Amino acid sequence: MQISFANIIKDSFQWMVNILFKTFNLKKWIALTFIAIMAGYLSFNMNFNLPNNKMNSNTMRSCPSAGLIFQPTGFLEADEIVIAIPVELEQEPIEYMPEENETGAFLDEPADYIMVGIVGVIVIILMGIFTWLSSRFRFIFIESIVKNDGSIKVPWANNKYIGNQLFLFYLFYLIAYLGVMGLIIFRGYVSLNALGVFDQHANINFFKAVASIIPHILLFILLLFVAGLIYFFVENLVTPIMFKKKQGFVACWNEANALLKKNIGNFIAFFFINIGLGFGAVMATGLIVLFFVIIVFLLGALVVMLATGILSILPLGLKVIMGFIFGLIAIVGLIGVYFIANMLLLPIAVFFRTLGLKFIAAIDTGYDVF
Protein backbone atom coordinates (compact mmCIF):
# COMPACT_ATOMS: atom_id res chain seq x y z
CA MET A 1 0.00 0.00 0.00
CA GLN A 2 1.51 3.32 -1.09
CA ILE A 3 0.95 6.29 1.18
CA SER A 4 1.78 9.97 0.76
CA PHE A 5 4.35 11.02 3.36
CA ALA A 6 4.09 14.59 2.10
CA ASN A 7 0.41 14.64 3.08
CA ILE A 8 1.19 13.05 6.46
CA ILE A 9 3.79 15.71 7.22
CA LYS A 10 1.50 18.49 5.98
CA ASP A 11 -1.50 17.23 8.00
CA SER A 12 0.63 16.82 11.13
CA PHE A 13 2.03 20.33 10.85
CA GLN A 14 -1.43 21.77 10.25
CA TRP A 15 -2.84 19.92 13.24
CA MET A 16 -0.05 21.25 15.43
CA VAL A 17 -0.78 24.80 14.23
CA ASN A 18 -4.50 24.37 14.92
CA ILE A 19 -3.89 23.12 18.45
CA LEU A 20 -1.26 25.60 19.56
CA PHE A 21 -1.73 28.75 17.48
CA LYS A 22 -5.13 29.05 15.82
CA THR A 23 -6.86 28.57 19.14
CA PHE A 24 -4.09 30.00 21.30
CA ASN A 25 -4.70 29.48 24.98
CA LEU A 26 -1.91 30.10 27.49
CA LYS A 27 -3.46 27.77 30.05
CA LYS A 28 -3.59 24.96 27.48
CA TRP A 29 0.02 25.63 26.45
CA ILE A 30 1.14 25.34 30.07
CA ALA A 31 -0.85 22.14 30.59
CA LEU A 32 0.42 20.56 27.37
CA THR A 33 3.99 21.52 28.23
CA PHE A 34 3.69 19.86 31.64
CA ILE A 35 2.16 16.73 30.08
CA ALA A 36 4.88 16.55 27.41
CA ILE A 37 7.62 16.92 30.04
CA MET A 38 6.12 14.16 32.18
CA ALA A 39 5.71 11.96 29.10
CA GLY A 40 9.39 12.40 28.28
CA TYR A 41 8.88 14.22 24.99
CA LEU A 42 10.56 17.44 26.12
CA SER A 43 13.98 17.95 27.62
CA PHE A 44 15.69 21.34 27.42
CA ASN A 45 19.42 20.88 28.09
CA MET A 46 21.06 23.98 29.50
CA ASN A 47 24.34 22.26 30.43
CA PHE A 48 26.93 24.32 28.57
CA ASN A 49 30.59 23.64 29.33
CA LEU A 50 32.26 26.96 28.74
CA PRO A 51 36.07 27.12 28.76
CA ASN A 52 37.62 28.88 31.71
CA ASN A 53 39.99 31.59 30.53
CA LYS A 54 41.01 32.76 33.97
CA MET A 55 44.75 32.41 34.59
CA ASN A 56 45.65 32.27 38.25
CA SER A 57 47.49 30.04 40.66
CA ASN A 58 44.37 28.00 41.37
CA THR A 59 43.27 27.26 37.81
CA MET A 60 46.63 27.04 36.00
CA ARG A 61 49.28 24.55 36.98
CA SER A 62 52.97 24.29 36.13
CA CYS A 63 53.89 21.58 33.67
CA PRO A 64 57.62 20.83 33.91
CA SER A 65 57.26 17.79 31.67
CA ALA A 66 56.21 20.14 28.85
CA GLY A 67 59.05 22.54 29.60
CA LEU A 68 56.72 25.14 31.06
CA ILE A 69 56.41 26.52 34.57
CA PHE A 70 53.76 29.12 35.32
CA GLN A 71 54.78 32.26 37.12
CA PRO A 72 52.57 35.26 38.11
CA THR A 73 54.05 37.11 35.15
CA GLY A 74 53.42 34.32 32.66
CA PHE A 75 54.96 31.14 31.35
CA LEU A 76 58.72 30.65 31.29
CA GLU A 77 60.85 27.94 29.84
CA ALA A 78 61.71 25.42 32.54
CA ASP A 79 65.43 25.58 31.93
CA GLU A 80 65.36 29.37 32.33
CA ILE A 81 64.37 29.27 35.98
CA VAL A 82 66.07 26.15 37.26
CA ILE A 83 68.80 28.36 38.71
CA ALA A 84 66.21 30.23 40.74
CA ILE A 85 65.36 27.15 42.81
CA PRO A 86 67.14 27.34 46.18
CA VAL A 87 69.72 24.61 46.71
CA GLU A 88 68.32 23.71 50.10
CA LEU A 89 64.95 22.90 48.52
CA GLU A 90 66.44 20.50 46.01
CA GLN A 91 65.90 16.90 46.99
CA GLU A 92 66.54 13.59 45.42
CA PRO A 93 63.40 12.27 43.73
CA ILE A 94 61.65 9.65 45.77
CA GLU A 95 61.18 6.51 43.80
CA TYR A 96 57.70 5.09 44.27
CA MET A 97 57.65 1.38 44.91
CA PRO A 98 54.15 -0.08 44.52
CA GLU A 99 53.04 -2.69 46.98
CA GLU A 100 53.03 -6.27 45.88
CA ASN A 101 49.23 -6.54 45.45
CA GLU A 102 48.60 -2.95 44.34
CA THR A 103 47.10 -2.59 40.87
CA GLY A 104 45.32 0.76 41.12
CA ALA A 105 42.23 -0.75 39.50
CA PHE A 106 38.63 -0.35 40.52
CA LEU A 107 36.40 -3.33 41.46
CA ASP A 108 39.28 -5.21 43.13
CA GLU A 109 37.53 -5.45 46.48
CA PRO A 110 34.12 -6.96 47.42
CA ALA A 111 33.10 -3.56 48.82
CA ASP A 112 33.46 -2.07 45.34
CA TYR A 113 30.95 -4.55 43.92
CA ILE A 114 28.55 -3.90 46.81
CA MET A 115 28.75 -0.14 46.21
CA VAL A 116 28.11 -0.56 42.50
CA GLY A 117 25.16 -2.86 43.26
CA ILE A 118 23.60 -0.39 45.71
CA VAL A 119 23.96 2.50 43.26
CA GLY A 120 22.48 0.32 40.51
CA VAL A 121 19.44 -0.57 42.62
CA ILE A 122 18.81 3.09 43.50
CA VAL A 123 19.07 4.08 39.84
CA ILE A 124 16.64 1.33 38.79
CA ILE A 125 14.11 2.37 41.47
CA LEU A 126 14.21 6.01 40.39
CA MET A 127 13.98 5.05 36.74
CA GLY A 128 11.03 2.81 37.59
CA ILE A 129 9.13 5.70 39.20
CA PHE A 130 9.76 8.04 36.29
CA THR A 131 8.95 5.31 33.78
CA TRP A 132 5.59 4.67 35.47
CA LEU A 133 4.70 8.36 35.30
CA SER A 134 5.98 8.67 31.74
CA SER A 135 3.98 5.65 30.55
CA ARG A 136 0.69 7.11 31.80
CA PHE A 137 1.43 10.61 30.52
CA ARG A 138 2.25 9.31 27.04
CA PHE A 139 -1.38 8.34 26.59
CA ILE A 140 -2.55 11.56 28.24
CA PHE A 141 -0.47 13.47 25.68
CA ILE A 142 -2.07 11.52 22.82
CA GLU A 143 -5.54 12.25 24.21
CA SER A 144 -4.67 15.93 24.60
CA ILE A 145 -3.56 16.12 20.96
CA VAL A 146 -6.54 14.19 19.62
CA LYS A 147 -9.10 16.16 21.62
CA ASN A 148 -7.26 19.49 21.47
CA ASP A 149 -7.45 19.72 25.22
CA GLY A 150 -5.04 20.06 28.14
CA SER A 151 -6.97 18.17 30.78
CA ILE A 152 -5.08 15.81 33.10
CA LYS A 153 -7.45 14.50 35.76
CA VAL A 154 -9.94 12.65 33.54
CA PRO A 155 -7.34 11.33 31.03
CA TRP A 156 -5.23 10.12 33.98
CA ALA A 157 -8.08 7.85 35.05
CA ASN A 158 -9.10 6.89 31.50
CA ASN A 159 -5.63 5.66 30.60
CA LYS A 160 -4.80 3.85 33.82
CA TYR A 161 -4.92 0.30 32.44
CA ILE A 162 -2.99 0.88 29.23
CA GLY A 163 -0.57 3.17 31.04
CA ASN A 164 0.26 0.43 33.54
CA GLN A 165 0.60 -2.07 30.71
CA LEU A 166 3.05 0.15 28.88
CA PHE A 167 4.94 0.70 32.14
CA LEU A 168 5.44 -3.04 32.64
CA PHE A 169 6.89 -3.34 29.15
CA TYR A 170 9.23 -0.37 29.56
CA LEU A 171 10.27 -1.60 33.01
CA PHE A 172 11.45 -4.95 31.66
CA TYR A 173 12.78 -3.21 28.55
CA LEU A 174 14.92 -0.85 30.62
CA ILE A 175 16.17 -3.60 32.91
CA ALA A 176 17.14 -5.73 29.91
CA TYR A 177 18.72 -2.76 28.15
CA LEU A 178 20.71 -1.66 31.20
CA GLY A 179 21.68 -5.26 31.93
CA VAL A 180 23.07 -5.85 28.43
CA MET A 181 24.72 -2.43 28.38
CA GLY A 182 26.26 -3.05 31.80
CA LEU A 183 27.53 -6.46 30.65
CA ILE A 184 29.15 -4.93 27.56
CA ILE A 185 30.79 -2.18 29.63
CA PHE A 186 31.95 -4.66 32.25
CA ARG A 187 33.44 -7.00 29.65
CA GLY A 188 35.20 -4.03 28.08
CA TYR A 189 36.55 -3.05 31.49
CA VAL A 190 37.77 -6.60 32.13
CA SER A 191 39.53 -6.66 28.76
CA LEU A 192 41.29 -3.35 29.43
CA ASN A 193 42.09 -4.29 33.02
CA ALA A 194 43.70 -7.53 31.85
CA LEU A 195 46.07 -5.43 29.75
CA GLY A 196 46.85 -3.22 32.76
CA VAL A 197 45.22 -0.07 31.38
CA PHE A 198 44.00 0.98 34.82
CA ASP A 199 47.36 0.28 36.45
CA GLN A 200 49.29 3.53 36.39
CA HIS A 201 52.60 1.66 36.65
CA ALA A 202 51.93 -0.78 33.80
CA ASN A 203 53.52 -0.54 30.37
CA ILE A 204 50.53 -0.42 28.00
CA ASN A 205 50.48 -1.33 24.35
CA PHE A 206 48.10 1.25 22.88
CA PHE A 207 47.17 -0.79 19.81
CA LYS A 208 46.40 -3.89 21.85
CA ALA A 209 44.16 -1.83 24.15
CA VAL A 210 42.27 -0.34 21.19
CA ALA A 211 41.91 -3.75 19.52
CA SER A 212 40.52 -5.26 22.72
CA ILE A 213 37.86 -2.56 23.15
CA ILE A 214 36.66 -2.22 19.53
CA PRO A 215 34.36 -5.33 19.66
CA HIS A 216 32.69 -3.97 22.78
CA ILE A 217 32.20 -0.56 21.17
CA LEU A 218 30.59 -2.20 18.13
CA LEU A 219 28.29 -4.23 20.39
CA PHE A 220 27.37 -1.06 22.25
CA ILE A 221 26.47 0.72 18.99
CA LEU A 222 24.43 -2.30 17.88
CA LEU A 223 22.61 -2.29 21.22
CA LEU A 224 21.74 1.40 20.82
CA PHE A 225 20.41 0.81 17.31
CA VAL A 226 18.27 -2.22 18.27
CA ALA A 227 16.93 -0.47 21.39
CA GLY A 228 16.08 2.63 19.37
CA LEU A 229 14.31 0.58 16.71
CA ILE A 230 12.21 -1.21 19.33
CA TYR A 231 11.33 2.12 20.94
CA PHE A 232 10.36 3.57 17.54
CA PHE A 233 8.15 0.56 16.81
CA VAL A 234 6.40 0.78 20.18
CA GLU A 235 5.89 4.55 20.03
CA ASN A 236 4.51 4.70 16.50
CA LEU A 237 2.58 1.42 16.19
CA VAL A 238 1.98 -0.29 19.52
CA THR A 239 1.10 2.78 21.60
CA PRO A 240 -1.49 4.22 19.16
CA ILE A 241 -3.15 0.79 18.91
CA MET A 242 -3.28 0.54 22.70
CA PHE A 243 -4.84 4.00 22.88
CA LYS A 244 -7.35 3.19 20.16
CA LYS A 245 -8.46 -0.22 21.49
CA LYS A 246 -7.71 0.15 25.23
CA GLN A 247 -6.16 -3.31 25.20
CA GLY A 248 -3.12 -4.82 26.91
CA PHE A 249 0.40 -4.49 25.62
CA VAL A 250 0.96 -8.05 24.39
CA ALA A 251 -2.21 -8.13 22.27
CA CYS A 252 -1.42 -4.75 20.74
CA TRP A 253 2.21 -5.76 20.14
CA ASN A 254 1.02 -8.77 18.14
CA GLU A 255 -1.42 -6.60 16.22
CA ALA A 256 1.27 -4.01 15.51
CA ASN A 257 3.64 -6.77 14.39
CA ALA A 258 1.07 -8.06 11.90
CA LEU A 259 0.54 -4.50 10.66
CA LEU A 260 4.30 -4.05 10.31
CA LYS A 261 4.65 -7.16 8.13
CA LYS A 262 2.09 -5.75 5.70
CA ASN A 263 3.73 -2.31 5.62
CA ILE A 264 7.43 -2.98 6.19
CA GLY A 265 8.45 -0.69 3.30
CA ASN A 266 6.34 2.20 4.56
CA PHE A 267 7.66 1.70 8.09
CA ILE A 268 11.31 1.79 6.97
CA ALA A 269 10.63 4.91 4.89
CA PHE A 270 8.87 6.53 7.86
CA PHE A 271 11.84 5.63 10.08
CA PHE A 272 14.31 7.46 7.83
CA ILE A 273 11.92 10.37 7.31
CA ASN A 274 11.79 10.77 11.08
CA ILE A 275 15.58 10.82 11.18
CA GLY A 276 15.66 13.54 8.53
CA LEU A 277 12.99 15.59 10.27
CA GLY A 278 14.84 15.01 13.52
CA PHE A 279 17.93 16.73 12.14
CA GLY A 280 15.75 19.68 11.17
CA ALA A 281 14.23 19.71 14.67
CA VAL A 282 17.71 19.71 16.21
CA MET A 283 18.67 22.76 14.14
CA ALA A 284 15.44 24.55 15.10
CA THR A 285 15.98 23.64 18.75
CA GLY A 286 19.54 24.96 18.57
CA LEU A 287 18.35 28.35 17.33
CA ILE A 288 15.64 28.51 19.99
CA VAL A 289 18.16 27.58 22.68
CA LEU A 290 20.67 30.16 21.44
CA PHE A 291 18.25 33.10 21.48
CA PHE A 292 16.68 31.96 24.73
CA VAL A 293 20.03 31.64 26.51
CA ILE A 294 21.11 35.07 25.30
CA ILE A 295 17.91 36.66 26.63
CA VAL A 296 18.09 34.75 29.92
CA PHE A 297 21.76 35.64 30.35
CA LEU A 298 21.13 39.34 29.85
CA LEU A 299 18.11 39.40 32.15
CA GLY A 300 19.92 37.25 34.70
CA ALA A 301 22.91 39.59 34.71
CA LEU A 302 20.62 42.57 35.37
CA VAL A 303 18.85 40.74 38.21
CA VAL A 304 22.14 39.67 39.80
CA MET A 305 23.49 43.22 39.61
CA LEU A 306 20.29 44.55 41.20
CA ALA A 307 20.37 41.93 43.98
CA THR A 308 24.07 42.58 44.64
CA GLY A 309 23.43 46.30 44.85
CA ILE A 310 20.60 45.80 47.36
CA LEU A 311 22.69 43.45 49.52
CA SER A 312 25.64 45.85 49.53
CA ILE A 313 23.67 48.59 51.30
CA LEU A 314 22.02 46.36 53.90
CA PRO A 315 23.34 45.62 57.40
CA LEU A 316 24.74 42.15 58.09
CA GLY A 317 21.58 40.76 59.71
CA LEU A 318 19.37 41.78 56.82
CA LYS A 319 21.97 40.54 54.33
CA VAL A 320 21.56 36.99 55.63
CA ILE A 321 17.76 37.16 55.49
CA MET A 322 17.63 38.80 52.07
CA GLY A 323 20.30 36.44 50.77
CA PHE A 324 18.09 33.49 51.74
CA ILE A 325 15.06 35.13 50.11
CA PHE A 326 17.02 35.87 46.95
CA GLY A 327 18.20 32.26 46.92
CA LEU A 328 14.62 30.98 46.99
CA ILE A 329 13.66 33.45 44.27
CA ALA A 330 16.60 32.22 42.18
CA ILE A 331 15.48 28.58 42.53
CA VAL A 332 11.92 29.45 41.53
CA GLY A 333 13.27 31.53 38.68
CA LEU A 334 15.40 28.66 37.36
CA ILE A 335 12.40 26.34 37.43
CA GLY A 336 10.39 28.97 35.59
CA VAL A 337 13.15 29.42 33.00
CA TYR A 338 13.28 25.65 32.44
CA PHE A 339 9.51 25.47 31.98
CA ILE A 340 9.36 28.46 29.63
CA ALA A 341 12.14 26.94 27.55
CA ASN A 342 10.11 23.76 27.18
CA MET A 343 7.05 25.78 26.24
CA LEU A 344 9.03 27.19 23.32
CA LEU A 345 9.85 23.64 22.20
CA LEU A 346 6.29 22.35 22.60
CA PRO A 347 5.37 22.70 18.88
CA ILE A 348 8.15 20.24 17.99
CA ALA A 349 6.88 17.65 20.48
CA VAL A 350 3.27 18.03 19.32
CA PHE A 351 4.29 17.76 15.67
CA PHE A 352 6.29 14.54 16.07
CA ARG A 353 3.66 12.87 18.24
CA THR A 354 0.97 13.83 15.71
CA LEU A 355 3.19 12.55 12.89
CA GLY A 356 3.18 9.04 14.35
CA LEU A 357 -0.57 9.07 14.83
CA LYS A 358 -1.15 10.28 11.28
CA PHE A 359 1.21 7.62 9.92
CA ILE A 360 -0.60 4.65 11.44
CA ALA A 361 -3.94 6.14 10.33
CA ALA A 362 -2.57 6.38 6.77
CA ILE A 363 -1.54 2.72 6.57
CA ASP A 364 -4.80 1.51 8.16
CA THR A 365 -7.80 3.76 8.74
CA GLY A 366 -9.02 1.37 11.44
CA TYR A 367 -6.33 2.81 13.72
CA ASP A 368 -7.23 6.45 13.11
CA VAL A 369 -7.45 7.99 16.61
CA PHE A 370 -8.67 11.37 15.40
Helix tally? 9
Write down the overall mean pLDDT: 80
Helix content: over 70%
Q: Give the overall shape.
A: globular
Radius of gyration: 28 Å
Helix/strand/pairing category: mainly alpha
Q: Helices and strands, in N-to-C order? A: HHEEHHHHHHH
First and last CA, distance: 21 Å
Per DSSP E runs of 2 or more residues, the count of β-strands stands at 2
Fraction in beta strands: under 5%
Biggest β-sheet: count, sense, barrel? 2 strands, antiparallel
**How would you write the strand order of the largest sheet?**
1-2
Number of domains: 1
Q: Which segments are poorly predicted (pLDDT under 50) over 5 or more consecutive residues? A: 44-90, 98-104
Describe the structure.
With 370 residues, the protein is mostly helical. It has one domain (5-43, 110-367). It has helices at 5-22, 26-39, 110-147, 153-158, 160-194, 206-245, 249-262, 264-312, 316-363, and strands spanning 68-71, 74-77. The protein has a two-stranded antiparallel sheet with strand order 1-2.
Keywords:
mainly alpha; globular; 370 residues; single chain
Condensed summary:
This protein has helices at residues 5-22, 26-39, 110-147, 153-158, 160-194, 206-245, 249-262, 264-312, 316-363, and strands at 68-71, 74-77.
